[in-house]
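User: Structure tokens for this complex, please. No commentary.
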Amino acid sequence: MNARLTVIIVMFSLLWAGDSPAVQPDERLSDPTLEARARELSKNIRCLVCQNQSIDDSDAELARDLRILVRERLTAGDSNQQIFDFLVTRYGDFVLLKPPMKASTYALWFGPLVVFVLALAGLFVFFYRRMQANAAQPDVVALTSKERARLSALLDDNEKDRP
Amino acid sequence: MSRLVFIAPLILFAVVAAYFAIGLTKNASILPSALIDKPVPTFDLPPLKDTKPGLATADLKDDVVLVNMFASWCVPCRAEHPLLMQLARDKIVPIIGLNWKDRKTDAIAWLDELGDPYARIGHDPSGRTGIDWGVYGVPETYLIDRDGRIRFKYVGPMFPETFAEKFLPLIKDLRK
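Assistant:
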């Protein structure tokens, strides 16, 4: 096989190497639907040790413990919400990577929208005022033939002066 | 109205600056406990040593106590250990140990070397009881009141200053 082809094959195979979960083979459930649910749940559970990784991503020991715990509860028949609730009562909302919608997080969820609406309102007021100011000025009157003749004379003079 | 146009950006800046001043100086890696003012979780751990009792929920109901999560593999635990020894010696407050994700022999050897300040020690090799407490690293220290509720949690090694500042006033208060 020539070298170029090898390079191309290696490059392409790297395209598929992106997703490398921390889940170890011994943690996996034999039931594929439960395992898929476990993976989905794990992606939204924060690793409390590394804090900006999900437990699906993290190699921390506590993340492994929590992955196993999630799988145990799934096998025992818990719903997704029951599993989230179980973790939230122990670690608080922080354990969820997606913050829940509740009174204390409204500012977080709706803050950007409020800022956007305020900005729109500001822009509207700005342009509305400018339009009104323009409207208040007298209409622009067309030049009379006399004025037009004078203007072109001036412009011609100006042309001649140029080197 | 025209003055407002000039003042508004300043006010906006002040608000954002205050927000960041609070948000960025806070240590984000320290989590508040979700269990503050809640009863301690239900658990029953076997003793670490044959000579000392283990630890269960019912043991945390009579007195204001500290529950200290520790492990022999934990370096900061070693740093706070002299303080625990001193608290035990001066009988400031009973200290109860929860040995988290540790091997029995390692933990006993560690206590033999550094001294054992604990009134009782529960052994939690799987770390499951720790998870019920919301432990995410060691050391962590919890203050329990007479009704068996968690009143305060401190993450990381305690030193004499932190103890005097954060725990002592609370302990006095809870003993009233």
